[in-house]
Amino acid sequence: MSLNTQRRLREVALTPDEYLAIVEELKRPPNEVELGMLGVLWSEHCSYKSSKALLRRLPSTGAAVIQGPGENAGAVNIGEGWAAVFKIESHNHPSAIEPYQGAATGVGGIIRDIIAMGARPIALLDSLRFGPQPASSHHVEGVVAGIGGYGNCIGIPTVGGEVYFEECYTNNPLVNAMCVGLVRVDRLMRARAEGTGNSLMLVGAETGRDGIHGASFASLELDETSSERRPAVQVGNPFLEKCLLEACMDLAHTDAVVAIQDLGAAGLTSSVAECAGRVNGAGAHIDVGRVPRRERGMTPYHVMLSESQERMLVVVQRGREAEVEAIFQAWDLTSAVIGHVTDDGHLTVVDGAEKVARLPISLLTDGAPPRRLIGVAAEQPPGLDLDALPPLVDAGATLLRLLASPNLSSRRGIFRRYDHMVGDATVIPPGGDAAMLRVKGTRLGLAVTTDCNSRYCHLDPHVGAQLAVAEAARNLVATGAHPLAVTDCLNFANPDRPEVYWEMEETIAGLAHACRALDLPIVSGNVSLYNESFPARGEGGPPQSGRPDGAVSSAIYPTPVVGMIGLIDDYAKRLRAGLRAEGDFVLLIGSSHNDLGGSEYLKVEHGLVAGRPPALDLARERAVDRLVLAAADNGLLHSAHDCAEGGMLVALAECCLLGGIGVRCPAIRPEAPLRMEAAFFGESPSRFIVSVSSRAMPELQSLARRHHVEISLLGLAGGDSIEFEGQFRLPLAEIRQAWEGALT
Amino acid sequence: MRSLRCSAAPSIWTTWAPNLSSRSPAVIAKIVVTPKPVVNDPQGITVKQGLATLGFREVSDVRVGKYIEVNLEAGSEHEARQRVEAMCKQLLANHVIEDYRFEIETDGRRR
Amino acid sequence: MKFGVVVFPGTWSDRDCGWVIDQVLGAELQYLWHKDADLKGCDCIILPGGFAYGDYLRTGAIARFAPVMEKIGEFADRGGLVWGICNGFQVLCEAGLLPGALIRNASLEYRCQWTNLVVERTDLPFTSQCATREVISIPIGHGEGSYFADPATLSRLEQRGQVVFRYCDAGGRVTSNANPNGSLHNIAGIVNARGNVLGMMPHPERCAEAELGGTDGLKLFRSVAENAMKVLAS
Fold it and tell me: What is the percent of chain C with per-residue pLDDT over 90, rounded to a whole number?
């Protein structure tokens, strides 16, 4: 292999072994364009070559599933002829480089995935992780502004998500965007290039040199006279995408369209290859000379690899191109026939009369040799000796510090910057457990959430992943919605390090275990690797620097973000977290243990990230969830709230703050071995705080007995303070100040 | 400042195209739009505070506006000025809240 | 009674307004495409919220030149009811159908939240179902909603009673704390001198059903439905 070839391989992030596999399959060396195309499609981001084998272990089938992984997004049947289409995706590295545009284009990309299924997007959620403030302010400000800038302009409500602050995200912030859409079941589209001779149309924005990897762009630049080097940062145009969205919705009224495919990472190359790859034996013929361009001097390489935003590939029945063109014309959008579907199983690229590239579709989409990585268990995180900790002195003071801490304070300062009301469907706004959208024209309510406590995952990736699933489910249950299906965004550090690969194995095993136990299929998702000391090459491949093996830089905690949707048959029965009426009984459902490992209490009060994450019993989780759903369905509950980070007392305070009603409780006297600090601030899973009228108590108690779930009376709703007799009494105003003052 | 680019241009653009001979030379108009002094400029205030935080205490006022570059064809500089003036009045600036000024560059020379 | 809802590229409250008119109010609904110079016999024209043409130059700056706007200007001159909501208010100011302009929020941030408004005019076709100085609760969703007008214009507006809605607290007190965007005189909505062109930043179409958190917005839609025919007949 010549030095020149080796240099080129580095530029397109292919290994010598991968190159040899290509030559063997083609029976010739690939040309430069072909090498570039294979380089991007064989990148980790597109090929999942490090994670594919593991991902097969995840459950993806279920009675409601209409579309599982492998399409632009997953889809489940929610009844009354409707399908919910949803997916979560990472835009971590672009957001680290340019927070505003990185986050904005992440939102734009996930919206197009939903549109490609023929669905109208109805909600966005964003799961965000940053380093500690104030050092991370630049990331936080840019990302939040970018999400708002895109979502607000395009008119899709941003209704939920999470924001966590943790040291490990200082250099590698995580931006995972989720979109949910609705489509009639019989109008659901699949991005399959069916029908030899059908036209391939490129619609939406014109193509520029955006997002072509800086390094490979510069060195493969064929037009040597151009000294311009384009940054890898793509700039989003939400207005154009709004027009694209409406035009694609208009397409649904014609049967001229066979399929729609988003252009995302690796642009035209991957969208055409994926679209053809879903149909046995299909191929495609593309003329890059017919691609509308934003700038001059673009080579076929640029056109095939450009990641210009707001573009879609549409497969159109031959002879009906003019109908499609007219629809895009009405929205002042360009559209062009750039090629057609073939039956030769190859992607052929020409530039007018000139041949540019010819590659088997299967080589592009499925040819990347899986990487065989080895997992070795990471060192046990530091143990936790609860007896060595100073005892809890003043639970009230601790409550105030916890509520003012970055991970527990009110998110209002963030979500009020997102339009969460447009669409007239948001029947539970952000700020509670899960948001809920009504399905207009029906009584159905669709609850949506994202969750992951990565500190738990760091301490035990298997249990941490299970806890993320359980918590997401609980958030939905707290609104009265039945958990239905999952989309996951798996964020990890560099899997070439055995302990990171082990984290991946454990995480995926944990996810699979919990999803099977709770009957939750995973219908779509995304994997983001190399979130470790800033990779120079974008999200595509391993860092190129010769870092000594095993050197730990600033690797993120394993962060399997679980996006989940749930369904309530009548949204009039939905529940909110806030207390509703004075005099109601405030109850704790579920049982408490000494679960202080990985807790916010440990971190905030003692500066520790240590111990084992809370123990999760999935059978108990199921029982507790069923009890709450049954009680909600029978109309017994006035409110319900999940107990999560910060434990019972933080959850109780949130119930009071959200409802504007205080609570009076007898003193907490935990029975041994339960410790006082665990009773107040322990993070045992499978617990809810609910409020009920005194009249509903007997029925709830018998329901709890039938479900074998423990319920205990915490106190009575009322007044304008939180009081535990003889322990502490705090005015709500003071608590609110701590809670809302932190993150504005 | 933010630069502006309008794709998916509305139909008004086409109706506006002046009737020009093919020999008209290319001209660049460099237009600056600023908020009127009487208009509150929260962006400017924020930038000023930011500069003060960085130690630039000599800064007494900051106004944040927009910079717009228009490439056009014009028979003469006079004609270019008239056309750009009309663009500013009709679209590029809002006289209620904004002032504008511009320079015309031909053959790379400022005039 | 027929409502016309204008759709510019980038408009997004069109469907919400349409939903309220069609599904909640039960009135006739006609969408009006920005390229059509025809109001199709509508009795009240709504310019809804969104980012018309991306709002890239200035909010509403490009939309005012759309073909449909010329007809809306003529319609307003004849006394027809024109109602600009959020981006629609911005378009009306740019088009000169209402005085002043909407500038960036004082916070420099987009704000999506509930606001309280005191209704200062109830003799208008838009507000006849509200009580005198009633405090209504309507959400906002905008980044550039801070009303500005020069001092002369502002005092003329006040003298003639053209301020229809002002941001206030729950008790109806007009305070700076209750002002979400830094607008002059806490202005949330104004009407032209003749009383047939209303512009407001808050979104009444987002609160016409209890499940969305309130129904005060429906009062405005009902007022219009009740009065639009009378206005045109007079």
Answer: 90
